Amino acid sequence: MKRYANLAFLAALALPASVAAATIDASLIPDGTYTVKIDKIVDAKHVAVTLDNGAQSTLTAGRDSIDFGKTKAGDQLKISLIKGNVMVYVDLTH
After folding, report:
1. What CATH number is attached to the domain comprising 70?
2. How far from 61 is each of 1, 13, 19, 58, CA to CA, in Å?
3. Which of 43, 48, 78, 94 is the most buried (most CB within 10 A)?
4. CA–CA separation, 72 vs 18, rounded Å?
């Protein structure tokens, strides 16, 4: 099942940004470091983002110390994801 999820995510990466605007479940995004742009702050522990490839997702804080309330829409973040959760981020806008 995970293999198919990874294939779906990789297929979304290959799409042009205008086509890839569909929302991707964060758990389908492979572990790694990504640069994202904040679309909106859902709450202090959830943030809606657009990845560099145009795909959109809602990300969840993976630690109690992560607080998206300190960011705002339009900010660019460098994030590290593990199992779909943000474990650490750096606000590149400030």
Report:
1. 2.40.50.320
2. 24, 23, 27, 10
3. 48
4. 24
pLDDT grade for 20, boundaries at 50, 70 and 90: very low
Cβ atoms 22, 12 nearer than 8 A: yes
Helix then strand count (H, E) for the chain reads 1, 5
Q: Residue 5 in 3-state DSSP?
A: helix
Judged by DSSP in three states, 92 sits in coil
Report pLDDT for 12.
Answer: 62
Residue-number span of the structural domain to which 10 is assigned: 2-91
**Six token digits for residue 89:** 């981020």
> Taking the model in full, what pTM does it have?
0.75
**Confidence band, pLDDT 50/70/90 cuts, at residue 8:** low
Please count the structural domains in the chain. Answer: 1
